[in-house]
Every structure is written in structure tokens, then in C-alpha cells.
Known about the structure:
The chain is of the alpha+beta class. The chain has 2 domains: 37-122 and 235-243, Thrombin, subunit H (Beta Barrel), CATH 2.40.10; 135-231, Trypsin-like serine proteases (Thrombin, subunit H), CATH 2.40.10.10. It has 4 helices and 14 strands. The protein has helices at 3-19, 166-173, 175-178, 234-243; strands at 37-41, 47-53, 56-59, 68-71, 84-86, 88-93, 107-111, 136-144, 155-162, 181-184, 195-196, 201-204, 207-215, 225-229. Strands 5-4-1-2-3-7-6 form a 7-stranded antiparallel beta sheet, covered by helices on one side. A hairpin with a 5-residue loop joins strand 1 (37-41) and strand 2 (47-53). The longest helix has 17 residues, at 3-19. The protein is globular and about 45 Å long. The site of one 2-acetamido-2-deoxy-beta-D-glucopyranose has 3 residues, from loops. One of its GO terms (cellular component) is secretory granule. Residues 1-18 form the signal peptide.
Amino acid sequence: MKPCLVFTLLSAAGVILARESEADKLNLPEDFTIPYMVYLQSSPEPCVGTLIHPEWVLTAAHCPLPVKIRLGVYQPSVKNKKEQIRNYSLTVPSPEFKAQSLENDLMLIKLSKAAALNSHVGTIAISMEPLAFNDSCFIPTWTWNEYKNLSDPDILTWINQYSLPLNDCQNMVGQIMAARIMCVGQPLNILSRTKEVSAAPAICDGRLHGILSWAKGSITLGSEGFFTEVYHHARWILKVINNS
Length: 244
Ligand SMILES: *[C@@H]1O[C@H](CO)[C@@H](O)[C@H](O)[C@H]1NC(C)=O
Ligand SMILES: *[C@@H]1O[C@H](CO)[C@@H](O)[C@H](O)[C@H]1NC(C)=O
Ligand SMILES: *[C@@H]1O[C@H](CO)[C@@H](O)[C@H](O)[C@H]1NC(C)=O
């Protein structure tokens, strides 16, 4: 696995797509996937998971437990033959997760059977260090063209964003919370009916740096998003993976 290479290719693709109109946006090969993106199908709403090890998915602790885990997915509303379907055998929310304030909003999910890694399904490394100042992050998620209750989303979309300086982040969420949060985006007044799947990853410098905890609007249209910073939890993540 070469996360840097994958990141570079995807960033390039993102830039090209961003310049095209919404209608042209899906002009991708039918079997296109972002290999580490995992679709956590659940009720009432799905989440994005990120494959960080053949047997482990990282997502947000606010997500419901998945009913079905799908790997190698491009459009969740469409089944494809290359998809891998799994259940979970273990779920481990961060012991520091606070449901009220959404602090430390991370959960590890162990797959019932390891993912078969190929060109459609692959892992991404977690970050062990804070993000360098003003680094660009690639943030993918799925959205619904038209949201219907309990339907699967049909669009894969993404944005490239710079992480905001700590000061700006503190102004938005307060000093204490900002200590373990990564902020992107800006206050926007966009009238959009776009609904996004929760727990999108932020891939910066080829590594998984954040998991989206909450947002003030549509993150893929540039609104403010607040990510749990993964590196603070890297030791806990490695400990769980090595001992479970
Ligand atoms: C998935 O695993 C959970 C926990 O082990 C179990 O309760 C559930 O019935 C399983 N679901 C399926 C579809 O096998
Ligand atoms: C971050 O980098 C981008 C691109 O290089 C630049 O446009 C922007 O002004 C930088 N932001 C800060 C706060 O330095
Ligand atoms: C969505 O579906 C769930 C489960 O069937 C139901 O409880 C809920 O009321 C529905 N919501 C809407 C807005 O239809």
C-alpha cells in the first residue's frame, strides 16, 4: 500500500472534478472506488468507515452499529459484484467518548472476516503526529441526490480543504474542545438540500488525520467541519488492534 501515491492521484481527480459541473461529476469508471472507504449500512442512518487494517475499520462513536459492512463500494445504492460484505465481531468506542459534547468521537470496528485487499479495497495508515500547519486534506463522503428515508446514498463526492489554524478553531468551538479537534471550512449560508453521510475521513499528507464528528452545513460544499484528531488516539488504536 502506498498511501501517498493514492492521495496524490485522488487529489488530482478531485481538482478536475471540482471544475466540472455537478451533472458531469459522476463521469468516472463504473468500478471506481476510494479503496479505504467503507460503507457502514445501518438504521436510521449510515456512516462512513475507514479501513485502517485488513480487519479494522475506524469510524465515529456517534454512529449506530452497522447492520451490514460493505467494502469496495462506489455508489451504495447500487450493488456491484466486486463488493465485499462483512459483519462485525467487535465494536470498541473510545473509552473517553462523551456523547453530549462529542469529545473523542471515535469507534473501532473489527470485521467478522478480514477484507481481501485488491485494487478496490485497501487500507490507509493513521497519523501518529499532528498535521503540519496549513496542510491540505482530502475529505470524501457519500451524499443523496434526493434524500429518502432509509435509502442508501447514491453519490460519491469529496472536497480538498486546508485545516484551520488552532486560533480559528478555538474561536469556533472553544479552547478546551479545540485541543483535540481539527477544523476546516468557513461559515457559509448555502441553501442546499444535500445530505451527507456522517463520519467522513480527512486524509492529509497521505494519512488518516481526522474523522468528521459534526458539521455546521454541507462540508463538501465548504461549510465548517469538526474532526476528531486521530493522532491523539493512535496509541489506543494500536493497543486495541494488537490485543483484540
Ligand atoms: C452481526 O454480528 C452481530 C454481533 O456479533 C450479531 O448480533 C448480528 O446478528 C450479526 N448480523 C448478521 C446479519 O449476521
Ligand atoms: C494555506 O495555503 C493556501 C495555499 O497555499 C493559501 O492560499 C492560504 O492563504 C494558506 N492559509 C494560511 C492561513 O496561511
Ligand atoms: C423513517 O423510517 C423509520 C423506520 O421505519 C421511522 O421510524 C421514521 O418515522 C421514518 N421517518 C420519516 C421522516 O418518514
